[in-house]
Structures are given as C-alpha cells and as structure tokens.
Amino acid sequence: MARSPSKESLAEKTRMYIDAHPSVKDCVSRGLINYSSLARMIMKDLELDNEEAVMIACRRYASKLGVTTDHEMNILRILKNSCLEMRTKTCIVTAKNDWTVLNKMDFLFKDLWNENSIMQVVQSASAITIIADKMMKNRVVDTVGKFNIIKVRENLVEIAVKSPERIVDTSGVIAYLITNLSDAGINIEETVSCHTDTIFIVSESDMISAYSVLNKCIQSAEQIVKD
Question: Which of 41, 169, 163, 147 is nearest to 100 (CA)?
Fold first, then answer.
C-alpha cells in the first residue's frame, strides 16, 4: 500500500503544481479562485487524497503570493513610461560557435561602426546568433563563411520596448511581456535585452498582433498606474 505524502511533500507538490500553471498562479495571487475547486483539480492531477491538506497548502501559498502585488505595480510603472519602436526587413543568421567566426565578425563590426548600422550578436555555448537588416544577409553570410552557417531566417520584424533605466533593477518585466505574447499565440523567434531596450524578433505574419499586444501592455499600465 502506497504511503500518503507528508504535509511537507504535499505542500511542495501543491506549490509546484500552481507554479507550473501561470494562469492558476495569477488567480491565486489575486485571490480570484475557489480553493475547493482548485484542491480537487490538484488532487485529481497529482493523485492525492487529502482535500483539506491540499486546500490548506493552497491558502498558505496564496498568502505568500499576495505580496507580489507591489512587485507587479513596479513592472507596470516601468511599462507606463516605455515606448515601442519597430524595424521591418530583419534577418537572423545562426552560425557555429567558433573562434574563427568571431574573428571574422570583428572586421564586419568595424565596417558597421563606420556606416552607423545596427547589428546584434548573441553567443551561446553551441552557436552565434546574428540579428541584422535583411540587406546585410549576404554580407554576413559571406563574412562568416557558408560552411559555418547553421540556419538563416528571413521575413522577420524587430520590435523594441524602450524603457526607463529603472528596468535594469526591476525583475519580471521581460517575463511579463513574454507571457502576454505567448498567451496571444505569438512565437518569439529571438529576444535580446540590451540595457533599457527589450527586443523581440517575430515573423512578419505576427507583426501586427505582436505590436498590438505590446502596445496594450503599455496602454494598460498607463491606465492602472496613476502616480
């Protein structure tokens, strides 16, 4: 016969379940949920059998989540003072993470500096991602070398959320924006954070929807935050 989970493990399972369901977590933090219904749902999905204990765990976690209200207001204050910029005809070139690629990119950076052009480069353990104007695609590919190219993506749009400097010390702003884009079914090809700019790369087909979602985030913040 299987042993019933201890209060500690049951509480932890409950917390992890709520964390894994952002929409549920948001309702719990705002006190907009029926705890009996939530407890029964958790019991069913996790195969637990102590409704009272699960309800208590839900309420206790809700009390901890309740302190996030002020944190959310901090995020909205940032967005209230943010604005959007959009740049079409963007491409992404993904290359092997090799020192020779970086060495070749050095020459391209010098040329771009003289031309006052913009290009973002992100390095990970497995690849180097280069975000640039579509007109630069061939130039980037030729510079890096076709044998070093992993993938080239075109027909993309760059939407930048330009925020006040306080965003540097305010956690959760990027997660807030990504959640809203995800809830709208928008696929983010790449995202880059550069000081006060949060840059999202989406397909041209998602351009209007993505811009609308981000704009609504800013407009909602303007309506909610009065100070």
Answer: 147
Closest CA to 167 of 157, 176, 154: 176
pLDDT tens digit at each of 227 positions of the chain? 444 555 558 889 999 999 888 788 888 888 888 999 999 999 999 988 889 999 999 999 988 876 555 678 889 999 999 999 999 999 999 999 988 888 888 777 777 766 666 788 888 889 999 999 898 899 899 989 999 999 999 999 999 999 999 999 998 899 999 999 998 999 999 999 989 999 999 999 999 999 999 999 999 999 988 76
Full-prediction pTM beyond 0.85?
no
Between CA 98 and CA 76 the distance in angstroms is: 41
Q: Which of 116, 118, 90 is nearest to 190 (CA)?
A: 90
Which pair of structure tokens corresponds to residue 164? 């006040």
User: Is the separation of the CB atoms in 92 and 200 below 8 Å?
Assistant: no
Strand, helix or coil for residue 125: coil
Q: What is the identity of the amino acid at 199?
A: I
The single-letter DSSP state of residue 31 is T
Secondary structure class of 1 (helix, strand, coil): coil
Cα–Cα distances in angstroms (integers) from residue 71 to residues 11, 66, 117, 162, in the given order: 24, 10, 37, 20
Backbone angles phi, psi at 157, to 5 degrees: -130, 140
The Cα–Cα gap between 210 and 204 comes to 10
Angstrom distance (rounded) from CA 6 to CA 221: 42
